Amino acid sequence: EIVLTQSPGTLSLSPGESATLSCRASQSVSSNSHLVWYQQRPGQAPRLLIYGASRRATGIPDRFSGSGSGTDFTLTISRLEPEDCGVYYCQQFGNSLVTFGGGTKVEMK
Amino acid sequence: QVQLQESGPGLVKPSQTLSLTCNVSGGSIRSRGYYCNWIRQLPGKGLEWIGWIYYSGTTNYNPSLKSRVTISVDTSKNQFSLELRSVTAADTAVYYCAIDKSGYYWFDPWGQGTLVTVSS
Question: Is A38 within 8 Å of B102 when comparing Cβ atoms?
Fold first, then answer.
């Protein structure tokens, strides 16, 4: 099983700042196509943000960007807005199993 | 725009079977070739993928749950279902259905989720 470790656990930032979220895999993700990021706002279901490690899903603002390959992936949120508060999860498919990271909580100062 | 809605009992007794249904609107499971997934969110423990079914009936399950899970599909009603047998308190979670349109395990959209509590 590929374990995804997300850091930091919590980010506390001011509106307008940038957030850098890390997702590290215990072994190389088989293909960048299988690395995705979700946003989960309080009380809501997760929403697809980034697929294929770097491609924005439909309707996602260009403030969100994804990068990385192999075992290290990053989600960057520029120009933070209050609506960006929530928990962000990375997810991969490999070795016939989908696994999720433990999440990074983004909160506003 | 595809929308999903879960339904089923919110309380299940230990050792019994948890049964949920996901109704799909705005797109045909069969004609669009959707992979229909179940995912759960355990309290304080994050997200766990349960498995998927294709309209043809082909399934793929999380090995850790495979012995207790059955996912089925009814294309005439455009819905799919989850059965989880022999439940314990550890199965208490919010259960989500979600669609994968690509086959690459990109889940979009998700249903709103339904909380299932296992308790006597």
Answer: no
Torsion of CA B24, B29, B33, B35, to 10 degrees: 50
pLDDT of residue B44: 78
> How many Å lie between the alpha carbon of A51 and the closest alpha carbon of chain B?
7
Mean pLDDT score, B17-45: 92
Residues contacting residue B118 through CB under 8 Å, at least 6 positions apart = B11, B12, B13, B14, B18, B87, B88, B89, B90, B91, B92
Question: Which chain A residues are Cβ-neighbours of B104 within 8 angstroms?
Answer: 33-34, 51-52, 93
Beta bridge partners of A40: A87
As a whole number, mean pLDDT of residues B47-63 equals: 95
Closest among B91, B112, B119, B105 to B7, alpha carbons compared:
B112
Q: Across the interface, do B112 and A45 touch by the CB < 8 Å criterion?
A: yes
Token pair, residue B55, equals 């309209």
Contacts made by residues B54-58, CB under 8 angstroms, sequence distance 24+:
B55/B29, B55/B30
Residue A49: the pLDDT is: 98
Residue B45 predicted with pLDDT over 80: no
B108 lies within 8 A of chain A by CB? yes
Q: Which residues of chain A have pLDDT under 50?
A: none
In this complex, do A98 and B108 lie within 8 Å of one another by their Cβ atoms? no
Determine whether the interchain pair A46/B60 forms a contact, defined as Cβ–Cβ distance below 8 Å: no
